[in-house]
Give the backbone structure.
Amino acid sequence: MNYDVIIIGAGPGGIFSAYELIRLRPNLKIAIFETGGPLAERRCPITEGKAESCVRCKTCAIMNGFGGAGAFSDGKYNITNDFGGTLYEYIGKTQAISLMNYVDEINLSHGGQGTKMYSTAGTKFKKLCIQNKLKLLNASVRHLGTDINYIVLGRLYQELKDRADFYFHTPAEHLEKLENGGYRVHYKGTETADCSKCIVSVGRSGSKWMETVCRELDIPTRSNRVDIGVRVELPAVIFSDLTDELYESKIVYRTEKYEDNVRTFCMNPNGIVVNENTNGIVTVNGHSFEDPSRKTENTNFALLVSKHFSEPFKDSNAYGESIARLSNMLGGGVIVQRFGDLVRGRRSNHSRIAEGLVVPTLAATPGDLSLVLPKRIMDGIMEMIYALDKIAPGTANDDTLLYGVEVKFYNMEVALDENLESCHKGLYIIGDGSGVTHSLSHASASGVYVARKIVEE
Ligand SMILES: Cc1cc2nc3c(=O)[nH]c(=O)nc-3n(C[C@H](O)[C@H](O)[C@H](O)COP(=O)(O)OP(=O)(O)OC[C@H]3O[C@@H](n4cnc5c(N)ncnc54)[C@H](O)[C@@H]3O)c2cc1C
């Protein structure tokens, strides 16, 4: 089997590289290998109502398959260099923004028209935040919503499916460099496919495989950070001034006690809290829907603290994994606690939560997050909740729910040049799997970028 280009991973990075390659060179022979299934086959037992909590499927339908980790996400495309990755360090700020806008145009032309673009430009909240020792980061946010995001992905698949060979349920097992300068992908034990150029876009779920590829092909890597914290859920009305104007606000707070940065992440107005399974570890995340009938009375967002480690410990992800495992051990999965219980130093229980004002949108185990999160992280989160209370009064109410733990793992950073090409000519590493991006818009933009580089060559 010979191809001009093989793409490994059909998340946003892989999809947008295929889209751009096909647009610019319709005759290229392209194959896409994907561990998970086509979009329509992606079904999580929890969302299907067949299981209450994560049953640890062999291939996680939330993380793997056409659309990647973003398929059931809230579809928030943040157009900014302030967060979501460091793509601009490789390709420049102007080009990075221009590619993110290009991705936005494609999303709009594939079903996203009519969705709202929010912006922090000129908002009164900047001043209010600064007055309360909070910093609001700059961004424009296209909010597709989980339902429209799904439609966009469906249309992109219809457009690509007859122009590229899709190998679903087929993880690339081994990547070999050939003497002729090409690459050989080994799959299903004994089968192989060769190509001249290879784009690896395996996301977070492919992090362990990515590490193996880098080790085997001697590609230098650097350890990255891990973000640890909780997901906050409160009545939507408490945050409505912010969310009505900005939808998603990325706010950073510098703690007084340790001078650590705590930040808000992934805000879901009128959304739901969900489980996430990364390599068998259950953590928490959030979604929201455009469809008014699927909106809830609650808003959720994460509060995260970044941890970087230096000598002798380098494995930031293992640290995050251990904390997540601890919560899984104590709670059988995700733990939920009322803020009032946390402040009083007692665990939450079903009756106290049921009596509270916030109806949880995720069935998690009531417990005590202070037994899971290190004191330094817990103190930072509590300080930030009190700081947010000043711009959104009610955030620090006793009934505010905290779900733990939320962990954002980052892939180690792969050494790449300004073309996102590794030290091996023709081997490009993009998206979250490269450690360069951590978001839908950056991952998608990196896909368009390498496609254009390949065509230029
Ligand atoms: C629940 C959730 C909500 C999110 N919400 C948002 C949001 O609103 N906004 C935002 O910007 N970001 C969001 N994110 C993050 C966003 O989804 C990712 O940043 C983005 O999907 C990264 O794209 P990617 O293509 O690099 O990787 P991925 O989307 O992870 O795709 C990688 C694909 O590669 C496949 N793969 C892995 N290993 C192999 C292999 N060996 N062989 C073949 N295939 C392989 C995987 O199955 C996967 O489908 C969310 C993530 C989650 C989990």
